[in-house]
Specification:
The chain is of the alpha+beta class. The chain is 22% helix and 19% strand.
Length: 118
């Protein structure tokens, strides 16, 4: 899998845009990528967003209840839903995802484009 580009709106140093498609694309090559910029340009924020996306959204971790799974054919549908539960369901602590100071009440948006290897 390769990351083609990342677009960010209204997170820390990234300004708010009504449409995510209007934000600047941070494009990635398929090889080595080096991120260079001045202090406060958003280098660390972009990396933290990638960390957030992969840890909490794309590759979300789950806990399996082995006891319920072993009885999955004889338990209720509600109990079957408890067989696989995400870890840290609502906790995003440790990620700096504050809105841009100029637009604290506007929505935050992230777009990532991934290319899957086939």
């Amino acid at each position: 899998m390769n990351i083609e580009y990342l677009q960010i709106s209204n997170i820390l140093s990234f300004p708010f845009h009504h449409e995510i498609k209007d934000t600047q694309k941070i494009a990635f090559d398929s090889g080595l990528n080096i991120i260079i910029g001045e202090n406060g340009a958003g280098k660390s924020t972009a990396l933290e967003i990638l960390n957030f996306l992969f840890k909490r959204v794309i590759y979300r971790q789950y806990n399996m209840n082995q006891g319920l799974f072993a009885r999955r054919h004889s338990i209720s549908a509600d109990d079957r839903r408890l067989t696989l539960q995400p870890t840290n369901q609502d906790s995003f602590s440790g990620f700096r995802m504050d809105p841009n100071w100029d637009n604290e009440s506007d929505p935050q948006k992230i777009r990532i484009c991934l290319r899957l290897d086939v």
